[in-house]
Amino acid sequence: MYPWLDPSGRFSVFKLVVFVALVVPGCLLLWPVIAEGGATIPVKEAILESGEWAIRILLITLLVTPLRRMTRFSKLVQVRRQIGVAAFCYVMIHFGLYAISQNLDPFRIASEIVLRIYLTIGFVALVGLAVLTATSTKSAMRRLGAKWGRLHKLVYPIAVLGIVHFFLQSKIDVTEATLMAGMFVGLMLYRFAHWRGWSLRSSKTLLSIAVLSGLATAGIEYAWYGLATGIPADRVVAANLECMWPLRPAWTVLLAGIGFAVIAQFGRDKPARSMIARVFGTQKVAAGASSR
Ligand code: HEM
Question: Which of 29, 55, 123, 169 gets mutated to test ligand 1 (max ligand atoms within 8 A of its CB)?
């Protein structure tokens, strides 16, 4: 099925926008590699960029369900698989570029994966994502029945492995990796809140999660510098208290959490929901959601 068609086979602006947003970064990062015929520097840069996009898109996949609960925008479910498959595609691009950087030598690639722990961890995550992608179809869902849900919970350890891989290869500057880890904690807290029966439309719940995940992010940064580097961890914590740009990861995570609390207010607001429904042609969905 074409990625811009909805389940009933009709053209969907929403699905098209999501599809284009997922494809554009891939084209932009691959373009210099193609233009320069696979030269070393563009390949190295594209390895880093594709890895960053892989982890970002994997986390966006985990955001879909909480965001749907916050906003009641039930059409989000239609793009969850598309986003998950895109995360796998970016990991495959990342791996393919790595293979090119190793002159496509299978023995060299295999021995590097076995010998370097950060590559071993990345590879396990890649295999896990391949299994989830292969079993993400409707027929696999039917075949696996109740086991499908349990199998797809593997996405959480896979995301953790992706983040650990990110930390291990980042060497001294773990700003981006810390940001991803903090976002992941926030996403897990949304799931925990839902599991405890706390509404993801309550400002109190969402703001508490924002603060907790911001603090957890500062804690992760402190722990990393304290345990894995010789940099005094208290200097890192003090940096969080200074006003600086770009923002420290803990502040970015806190602000993102506050942003979601604001978005959830729109979910409660009937005129805003109707406007979204009009833009994306989902009147029925909005009407149904409002009665729930
Ligand atoms: C789910 C699987 C994976 C994810 C999410 C992932 C993600 C990442 C991220 C975020 C980075 C850092 C980018 C940066 O620093 O800007 C990275 C770097 C890297 N990854 Fe992966 N990766 C995965 C699997 C793999 C695999 C299977 C390989 C190869 C066997 C691999 C090889 C590399 C290499 C070589 C680097 C750059 C290291 C350097 O230049 O220091 N990754 N990856």
Answer: 169
Q: Give pLDDT tens digits for 108-129.
A: 999 999 999 999 999 999 999 9
Per-residue model confidence as pLDDT tens digits over 54-102: 999 999 999 999 999 999 888 899 999 999 999 999 999 999 999 999 9
The residue contributing the CA closest to ligand 1 atom 20 is 51
**What is the largest distance, in Å, between two alpha-carbon atoms of the chain?**
60
Sequence letter at residue 165: H
Say which amino acid occupies 261.
A
For residue 250, how many C-alpha atoms fall within 13 Å in the half-sphere facing its CB? 20
- pTM of the complete model beyond 0.85: yes
Give the pocket of ligand 1 (CB within 6 Å). 47-48, 51-52, 54-55, 91, 94-95, 98, 113, 119, 122-123, 125-126, 129, 162, 165-166, 169-170
d(CA 128, CA 226): 31
Query: 37 or 281: whose pLDDT is higher?
Result: 37
Average confidence (pLDDT) over 15-43: 95
Residue 94 alpha carbon to ligand 1 centre in Å: 7
What's the CA-to-centroid distance between 260 and ligand 1, angstroms? 29
Pocket test for ligand 1, best of 94, 126, 158, 163 (most atoms within 8 A of CB): 94
**Where are the domains positioned within the chain?**
11-170, 175-284
* Secondary structure of 12-71 in HEC code, one letter for each residue: CHHHHHHHHHHHHHHHHHHHHHHHCCCCHHHHHHHHHHHHHHHHHHHHHHHHHHHHHHHH
pLDDT score recorded for residue 11: 92
